[in-house]
Amino acid sequence: MQNVLSTCKTLLSCSDGLKEFEVLRSQYGTQEREVTFVDDLTETEYFDRFLLPNKACLVGEKLTREWLARKDWVADDGGPNWEHLREHYGNVKVPVADCQREQYGSHVKIEMTMAEYLDYWQEDIRTRPNGDCATTTTAMETAAPRATAATADPTNADLIAKVGKRRILYLKDWHFCRAFKDSPVYQVPTPFSSDWLNEYWDASDAGDDYRFVYMGPKGTWTPFHADVFRSYSWSTNVCGRKRWFLFPPGEEDAFRDRFGAFPLDVTSVDVAQDRNRFPAAGSAQLPIVVIQEAGQTIFVPSGWHHQVENLEDTISINHNWGNACNIGYLWTGLKDDLKQVLYYTLAIKVLRTALSLLQALSFYFVDWSLPCTSIGDYASIGDYASIGDYAS
Questions:
Q1: What is the number of alpha carbons within 13 Å of residue 363 lying toward its C-beta?
Q2: Among 116, 114, 80, 109, which Cα is nearest to 94's?
Q3: How far apart are CA 316 and CA 123, in angstroms?
């Protein structure tokens, strides 16, 4: 067993991480919980102890010790091997999330070449203040203020040019196996090899999968979420360290806002203190905190919501997957997602009908010769039906 508090005290050599954990403990439930650490993992042990009970665990580095990625992608100092990555993947287009730009409940994605991203990353390292820690006042509040998609400049060159303001860019959800089908850089660990989800995609003509590579500097992070289709996931740190905030199924409901949506950052002070916006946050439980070291693998069970931050410059490999053990969770997740789609589809139809009615009622009071250039202009002159088209 690996105790949460002892884990947290080894999580960072800087005080911000411990301060942040104390803030969480003061705002939410005080029950400190454990996650099981195992030095190695057999298929039978994994099936009985973790897969069937839907229980998280952290596995030692022996599980992936023979991966070429852990040798070729890692430099002698333990950080990313810049030269190798440039030589083998420099011209490849990769998806990059801007951790300071939010849109539709997620981070805005752009596209860069691997070489462009590595330029940004190395410049970020060179321009960091000495002794810089990954965290500031909360886990995911970074050095530069966050921006919305409408106000932030989306061009790659400008994002790289703004490194001095500590842009927080995260190469994530890169379908590495899809791009390099015959690459031997890693093999799926045997305990995770029964994977109906990716086997389905491999047999289809859709050309999709749920196998990803993540790369990013310290301070990059993934917002609060549960994995696609309520699948299992495993994630191995090729190099670097991560901090995970884990919540077993059902505990996520305390973080819903009054409209039923989740915040991006559950460590935000607003979530803990704004009872008008987050009415149930007072019943939230303290997260299970896991510090994942280089070489270690974490298993995240079905339906467990989580939020993740890179505490160092980190490369990781992650698979979402499923089989007979979690088929019930997958089915329930699909049904819940369908209900949401139907709900929002109906809501949009009702909105469009109401706006069309308002347009008809205001027809005789509006000068329709005025130009319209934005949704705000539509609203200002009464073109409510166009707002409905915009929303749909």
A1: 5
A2: 114
A3: 21
Q: What type of residue sits at position 46?
A: Y
Alpha helices in the chain (DSSP H): 4-9, 15-27, 43-46, 69-72, 82-89, 114-127, 156-161, 176-179, 196-203, 269-273, 327-362, 375-381, 384-391
Please state, in angstroms and rounded to a whole number, the distance separating the CA atoms of residues 141 and 34. Answer: 26
User: Which 3 state secondary structure label does DSSP give 289?
Assistant: strand
Asked whether the whole model's pTM tops 0.70, one would answer yes
Q: Are 86 and 118 in contact (CB under 8 A)?
A: yes
First-to-last CA distance in the chain?
50
Higher confidence at residue 345 or residue 389? 345
Q: Which helix (H) or strand (E) holds 388?
A: helix 384-391
User: In this structure, are residues 8 and 34 in contact, taking their beta carbons and an 8 Å threshold?
Assistant: no
- Bridge partner list, 95: 111
SS3 state of residue 170: strand
Helix (H, G, I), strand (E, B) or coil at 317: strand
- C-alpha to C-alpha distance for 16 and 135, rounded to whole angstroms: 6
Tokens 């950052």, residue?
265
The Cα 185–Cα 66 span in angstroms is: 9
180's enclosing H/E stretch is none
Nearest alpha-carbon partner for 292 in 244, 327, 337, 259: 244
- Longest distance between any two alpha carbons in the chain, whole Å: 75
The rounded distance, in Å, linking the Cα atoms of 1 and 274 is 35
153 pLDDT tier (thresholds 50, 70, 90): very low
If you ran DSSP here, which 8-state letter would residue 286 be given?
P
Token pair 């280089």 is found at 294
Residue 9 main-chain phi, psi, to 5 deg:
-75, -15
CA dist., res. 387 & res. 62, Å (int):
56
Indicate the pairing of strand 211-216 with strand 314-321. Answer: antiparallel
Q: What is the pLDDT of residue 23?
A: 54
CB atoms under 10 Å from CB of 37, counted, come to 15
Distance CA 292, CA 55 (A): 16
